Amino acid sequence: MPGDLLAHQQHLESLALPSGLRSLAWLDSRGLENLALGELDSEAVKSLPATLVTLRVRSYSTFETLDGLPESLESVGIPFGGLNSLGVLPSGLRELELHRVRRLEASRLPRTLQRLSLRETSIRDSLDFPDSLVLLRLEGSGVESLDGLPPGVTALTLTGTRVRSLEPLPPRLHALELRDNPLLDPLQLQDLPRYLVELSLYDQSPGDLTELPATLRLLRVRGSWDPPAVLGKLPPTLAELDLELNQTTGDPDRERAALCSLPVHLRVLKLRSASRMDPRCLPSDLLDLHLEGLPHAVLPALPSGLHRLAIPQSIEIVTADLETVPSGLVALDLSYTGVKDLSPLVGRLPSLKELKCRGCLVERISALPRSLERLDLAGSRYLRTLEGSTTSPQLQALNLGGTAVESLAGVPSSVTVLDISGTPLRSLDHLPPNLQQLTIGAGQLRSLDGLPATVRHLSIVSIRQTQMPTEP
Q: Is residue 399 a contact partner of residue 376, using CB atoms and an 8 Å limit?
């Protein structure tokens, strides 16, 4: 922890701290609104700033109760630790995420609650959920029934439950996510609401896809099923499709033919394995394409009208291939490819706004498109210099976490969001003058000297988090 953090917190609105802090009494209570902690004990709860709006705790400890939380809180998340009793929660709470609640007293849930996530919490009987709920996530074998769901719920997630039937579902439900609910296999799709817009199935047998609601616009399917059986029965109205199908038929020709039966009006397509994709079969109106493991020869044949392209884990893709990407892209993801130089994008992509190159082999930034606004280079451990980043005067967000960058001298003054966690940087020299959000690693800096007064959001992440840097 920087020794002078106490003196630099007066301008902060958001602060994220790692585990290991014994006391929070030093926190400035005048303006802090958002706080994320590695751990929190019952005594520390009493010293939380009275101005807090959101609180996130990553601790695995068990809390006796949540009594004493600031009344100002609107969002509380404790996704890993246990809880014996709810206690008295802030009356204006709108969002709550809890794990392993021993005694869930639904009557104690604030009537203002809109988003509720419960993991490993027993829910065997009808519960008095607040009628204000619009989003509900239930996880664990203790969930056996959907009785008592408020009629206003529009998004529902069930993970690892023992629910046997999807009835009764809320009448306004438009988004449903099912993950590994064994008693629902095979899923009876005819029981789904006819007005459903989004459906996500993870390790959940989809049954007969001819029964999908005609209103469906987004479908996510991940698991081990026959690709032709899935792709050949999709509703023609589908606009977004996300597939990760691990099982193959052993018949490549049949699988390629199935991939040619995609809905013609598809706008967004994500395939976790692109080895059998024939680019000639992609819908001509496609705007957003995500293909993992893209073969080298496929890239030049992709639809020319694409706006967003992600080809992570495509190790065949190298620097020379950048000359063949669709020229109208506004977002490009080259993470974990063989690309070593980003300069070919300057002339090729004049409208590029977002570029992600996590885990790339880039050693230096010599030039970038002038239109670029977001750049994510996290985990590109060979990257050392940034002199070419000044060619992007509109750059706003920059993630350098886990790189070998030793100086920020080349960072454009326009940057407002910056992650330098896990880098060799040991001072805050050359920070952009209008910086608003900064992420550093625990133990990385001894002092915050040089921190601009404009910074409102400071995150200090642990070593483990530093190895997997945060999004800019």
A: yes
